[in-house]
Design goal:
Layout: E1 12-13, E2 21-24, E3 27-30, E4 37-41, H1 53-61, E5 64-67, H2 70-79, E6 85-88, H3 94-106, E7 110-113, H4 126-135, E8 140-143, H5 148-155, E9 163-168, H6 173-183, E10 189-195, H7 199-210, E11 214-219, E12 227-232, H8 233-238, E13 248-253, H9 264-275, H10 280-291, H11 295-307
């Protein structure tokens, strides 16, 4: 069990820039030394103005800031004149860096953990550090703030009562399609991360498997060139060739609706018609797009119909 988190004391206005602090709107604000423990600090996902005052106070008052990329975090600390030391902590050095951070915590240090953008532990290795810090009895405190997952959900205009965060899909197409077939069965809004280099391929696969669902493409959230596109997946995929692929993407896919899912009888009728002139592969692809049913289910039904000889019109 984690030790009980100890809140920091309120910031004190001061003009003594020799003490730890931060600068907002040209005014220096002194920050008290943060109490020992690990602080999980949410940072902006694009617009640096989205940082919270509590986050600034904690970053300024920490002994060290552990971050994925010191170059990216330095943009934030320089913007607010924060002088705390930065150390790297990311998936490639975590095994070696984690014991050193835990040792500093044991010595009474205050360490802030940040990701490149947004809330720590979302698609980064921070949970292992938190788990071990908890096991060692150190105070662990969350400082909530920006999150691309929640930002995308809030603007997608899709149901938010239940959602499933998947993160990044597999890079290879077959593995990606296999995973999407599994996700298609989840009765909730889906949230995916994607890169500009793969987003067009991802949209094509999404359209093939869940093409009737409503969705939103959220690009460069909170940044100067933020774009939100809302439409059925099939329509978004059809326009993917002209999509601006620079930047970061969050894809939000609405949950399956009864109206989107073809009945079993209608699916059989569609497959029978398609199998008279098309291959099983092409018939399945067409039926998946129109039926709203998972590819695996449609494929199994197509094989069953073919085996029974019904594809030739024999009853």
């Amino acid at each position: 069990m984690c030790a009980k988190a100890i809140p920091t004391t309120p910031a004190i206005n001061s003009k003594d820039t020799a003490s730890p602090g931060y600068t907002v709107a040209g005014q220096f604000v002194a920050a008290p030394k943060a109490r020992p423990g690990l602080y999980l600090v949410a940072t902006p996902i694009g617009n640096l103005g989205d940082i919270t005052l509590r986050a600034l106070e904690t970053l300024a008052g920490a002994d060290v800031i552990a971050c994925e990329d010191t170059r990216i975090t330095r943009r934030l600390t320089e913007r607010y004149a924060i002088t705390a030391d930065l150390i790297p902590y990311h998936e490639h050095n975590a095994e070696a860096a984690r014991p050193k951070i835990l040792q500093r915590l044991a010595e009474g240090a205050a360490i802030a953990l940040v990701s490149d953008a947004g809330t720590p532990l979302i698609s980064d290795p921070g949970y292992k550090l938190v788990r071990e810090a908890c096991a060692a009895g150190h105070a662990v405190t969350a400082l909530p703030g920006p999150s691309s997952v929640l930002a995308a959900l809030s603007v997608a205009a899709l149901p938010t009562d239940r959602f499933f965060f998947e993160g990044f899909l597999p890079a290879k197409q077959q593995a990606r399609r296999n995973r999407l077939n599994e996700l298609a069965r989840i009765d909730a809004t889906l949230v995916l991360f994607d890169s500009g280099s793969r987003v067009q391929d991802t949209l094509a696969d999404l359209a093939a498997i869940m093409g009737r669902r409503e969705a939103a493409i959220c690009r460069e959230l909170t940044k100067l060139h933020e774009e939100i596109s809302r439409a059925p997946l099939a329509e978004l995929a059809a326009g993917a060739a002209t999509l601006e692929t620079r930047g970061e993407f969050v894809l939000v896919i609405g949950p399956p609706r009864d109206a989107d899912i073809m009945t079993s009888d209608d699916l059989d009728a569609l497959l029978k018609e398609q199998l008279r002139t098309e291959s099983v592969k092409d018939a399945v692809a067409y039926a998946v797009e129109l039926s709203g049913r998972p590819r695996r289910e449609v494929y199994a039904r197509a094989l069953a119909l073919t085996k029974a000889g019904e594809a030739d019109g024999q009853d």
